[in-house]
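Exercise 7b. Backbone tokens:
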């Protein structure tokens, strides 16, 4: 599987789990930063998910390259 295909698969799997994580993270952020706007917490949660997906793809590519 190519890195591009793997990235597409990762982006499309488990949408409900991703949404549950987003909601949980936003709840946590609102407790930690009660004065922050909800849009700021949403942006932060989305960025965290994006970075996690990027880390997963990077690990896949490095592992694939070492085999």
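Sequence design result:
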């Amino acid at each position: 599987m190519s890195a591009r295909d793997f990235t597409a698969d990762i982006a499309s799997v488990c949408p409900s789990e991703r949404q549950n994580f987003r909601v949980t993270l936003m709840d946590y952020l609102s407790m930690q930063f009660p004065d922050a706007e909800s849009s700021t917490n949403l942006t932060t949660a989305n960025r965290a998910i994006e970075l996690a997906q990027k880390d997963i793809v990077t690990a896949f590519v490095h592992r694939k390259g070492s085999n």
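Instructor comment: The mean pLDDT is 88. The CA atoms of residues 19 and 35 lie 23 Å apart.
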